[in-house]
Amino acid sequence: MPPAAPRDRLGRALHDLRISITDRCNFRCPYCMPSEVFGRDYEFLPHDQILRYEEIARLASVFVGLGVRKLRITGGEPTVRRGLPELVAMLAALRAPDGEPLDLAMTTNGSALRHLSRPLADAGLRRVTVSLDSLDDATFRRMNGIDFPVAKVLDGIDAAVEAGLGPVKVNVVLKRGENDGGILDLARWARDAGHVLRFIEYMDVGTTNGWRLDEVVAAMEVIETIGREWPLEAASPQYTGEVAERWRYADGRGEIGVIASVTRPFCGDCTRARISAEGKLYTCLFSAIGHDLRGPMRAGESDDGLADLVAGLWGARDDRYSERRAAATERPLPKIEMFALGG
């Protein structure tokens, strides 16, 4: 028998699982995979070290048995891995113990959504989140690191809506002096199109992005900037552990959200676990150490044995990196690169 739904040392349940299916990406965004570090000679994981789709589905089933109700496919960039609709179909077939379907979503840079949205929706994907840091083509080309045009991502978002994967959530990582001048343009576009916009504070994920505190655009600065143009009112969280602070437009035309990991840490009710592409469990986005699940699984461990392992790791969890970072003054805390475990 699998163990009961575990809680960590701070009483937090395990509810959300983010699964990185590849460490590769076709973009080179400076806050995640800067091109000067991740160039042509960079060695990504060999194919045999990456979890097979069947292994991903098996681990997801174990986590569902422990209380997970939300699955999010991430990367790297998940759409660069072949046969993605096959994995979506496997995950969409999973059910909670009460028979309810899971909330199955994917985060993507949107570059492949024009041709993949329909197959993914048909396979059972329910929604997508697209990373889009600017509507200005020159800024977007510079920030994605490969001169990719913003028009193709916008077309991919349209394709996702046409396939029934909307309303699309759009994530914007703001970096002062880089794309913070486009806040109102993005808000206007999302209001008109009916998308859900999320502004994310530039975070110190990993060790290669050259993060500096003075480049962070604080969440409340974003709220004040948009609120001067279109009045906003605070909205209640939709569920325990929601990452974004939600704000509704007073005129009823949608909402925005801010993810303020730097200035307003929200570790207290975090319910998220992450599995990296090579099958390591990370209990925090800013973790420095992962716990191997691939090895025991390939060595023949049973589902109940894997569940006991995961429950034990979650039960020992006391992660609260953002809160600790806010209190740290002398030296940075260790962490792993974001592309390796998903956002």
Description:
With 343 residues, the chain is of the alpha/beta class. The chain has one domain (16-341): Aldolase class I (TIM Barrel). The protein is built from 11 helices and 12 strands. The protein has a 12-stranded mixed β-sheet. Helix 1 packs parallel to helix 2 and helix 2 (84-92) runs parallel beside helix 3. The longest helix is centred in the first third of the chain and has 13 residues, at 53-65.
Instruction: Tell me the Rg in angstroms.
Output: 19 Å
Distance between the termini: 32 Å
Sheet with the most strands? 12 strands, mixed
Category by helix and strand content: alpha/beta
Listing every helix as H and every strand as E from the N terminus to the C terminus, the arrangement reads EHEHEHEHHEHEHEEEEEEHHHH
Q: What is the subunit arrangement here? A: single chain
Note poorly predicted spans.
Answer: 329-333
- Indicate the mean pLDDT: 90
